[in-house]
Design brief:
1 helix, about 425 residues, six-stranded mixed beta sheet, Immunoglobulin-like, mainly beta, single chain, about 50% strand, 4 domains
Length: about 425
């Protein structure tokens, strides 16, 4: 009677294992829709089969009924055929490898511990969603038509498609969203038809590995309402400078566009941010008109407000009188005879050289009837200033009366000469 026995089955033949197969996408990239299948078989059954990268296990399928042949074979040795075991690894298992290219193998272990490893298969793992960044073209504008552009991501698997989602928001209607396909570089036209409306846009990118990335929203806001003309008030004057207060209806109308006008036309002045005050310099005396328009954040420019300005010419200065030039006194020296001659009188003398241009001798007397009578004679002095003049007695002069002899000199520039006289008798 045998109460117990021990049977030892020797198994030295390694199991069979197949090369892993990749399914889901034909791009060669492993992504969210990718499955890697593996399988193996053995005459007496497998303990486990799975995927490995080098010595690192990626995925494993274990046979829970086959632990150790010392207890129970995985199958009856006499049954014939083989026992297979397989499984698959999805995105979650493959993502643990990290994005990039990996070499993976199928690995099978039988109940006796024999191991078989398949040839390696290269897989390119990309599980990072592609996201468009730097969406441009949005913001506030007065324009109806604009263009949405964006920056494509770099690295990872190639991009397969782009979809632009636009949502139109109007004041009196619910938001309506639509999708449209797009070329990958961008350049999608966006139209904001409502003068005070908003259009939101975002970009969805899909790569060849099946990853899908969604960008942030870009807002296209429109404001087509023109600013009103500002009110201009003169508040200060300092020489040619004029201080102007600028009153606006909407604080959002922040940029002043001034110009200075005359009868000949207008010249644009530098724009500036509106602070409520503006200072303009008038270039020359005359009449001017300062005109100021407003530009809002959307780029709308409104009509001009205007204010007249004047710059008076400076007062004409009163000329300072030129003081008379100081003249040099020149003495007139005259040699008078002691008495009159029978018919004439000879007068000689001198003046300072160059001080006189002419010397005149005047004889004044009276007739027998008491009537005045005169006679004159003139001569040009010599260079030395000496002169000599003979003058006939006045016609009809009484021989019993005296004759007054007056000698005068016509002075040269810068000189003054005092005349002299003397009364002579026969």
């Amino acid at each position: 009677m045998i109460y117990s026995s021990t049977v030892t089955v020797e198994e030295n033949t390694p199991p069979s294992v197949s090369t892993p197969t990749v399914s889901g996408l034909a791009s060669g990239w492993v992504g969210p829709a990718t499955t890697v299948s593996y399988a193996g078989s053995d005459q007496l059954g497998l303990r486990s089969v799975g995927l490995v990268e080098g010595n690192k296990a990626v995925a494993t399928t274990a046979n829970t009924h086959c632990v150790d042949w010392s207890v129970l074979p995985c199958s009856e040795p006499s049954a014939g055929g083989s026992v297979g075991l397989g499984g698959s690894a999805g995105t979650s298992a493959l993502a643990a490898l990290g994005d990039g290219t990996h070499q993976i193998q199928a690995r099978a272990v039988d109940g006796a511990g024999n191991v078989s490893v398949s040839p390696a298969v290269a897989v390119q793992v990309d599980t990072t969603p592609p996201v468009a960044t730097n969406l441009t073209g949005g913001g506030l504008s007065a324009e109806t038509y604009r263009v949405l552009d964006w920056t494509l991501p770099t690295g990872g698997s190639p991009l397969a498609s782009a979809t632009v989602t636009t949502c139109v928001l109007s004041a009196n209607a619910p938001e309506v969203c639509t999708d449209q396909g797009s070329t990958l570089p961008g350049g999608v036209p966006i139209a904001v038809y409502d003068p005070a409306g908003t259009v939101r846009a975002r970009v969805t990118l899909t790569d060849v590995a099946g990853n899908v990335g969604v960008s942030d929203w870009a807002e296209f806001r429109r404001d087509a309402v023109l600013p009103v003309a500002p009110t201009l008030t003169l508040v200060g004057t300092n020489g040619a400078y004029r201080g102007i207060r600028v009153d606006v209806g909407d604080p959002g109308d922040r940029v002043l566009l001034p110009r200075l006008c005359t009868a000949a036309g207008c010249n644009d002045l530098p724009s500036q941010t509106n602070t409520g005050n503006y200072v303009v310099a008038l270039p020359a005396p005359g009449s001017y008109r300062l005109e100021v328009a407003l530009r809002d954040d959307a780029g709308n420019v409104g009509p001009y407000g205007a204010i007249p300005l004047e710059l008076a010419p400076p007062p004409t200065p009163t000329p300072t009188p030129t003081p008379p030039a100081t003249k040099r006194s020149a003495k007139l020296k005259v040699t008078f005879p002691k008495k009159l001659g029978p018919t004439s009188v000879a007068i000689s003398g001198s003046v300072v050289a160059g001080s006189a241009t002419k010397v005149t001798v005047k004889l004044a007397g009276k007739t027998t009837r008491g009537r005045s009578t005169t006679r004159t004679g003139s001569v040009k002095p010599f260079r030395s200033g000496r002169f000599s003049v003979r003058v006939k007695l006045p016609a009809g002069a009484s021989r019993t009366r005296a004759v007054v002899v007056t000698v005068t000199a016509t002075p040269s520039a810068g000189f003054k000469v005092t005349p002299t006289h003397k009364t002579l008798r026969h």
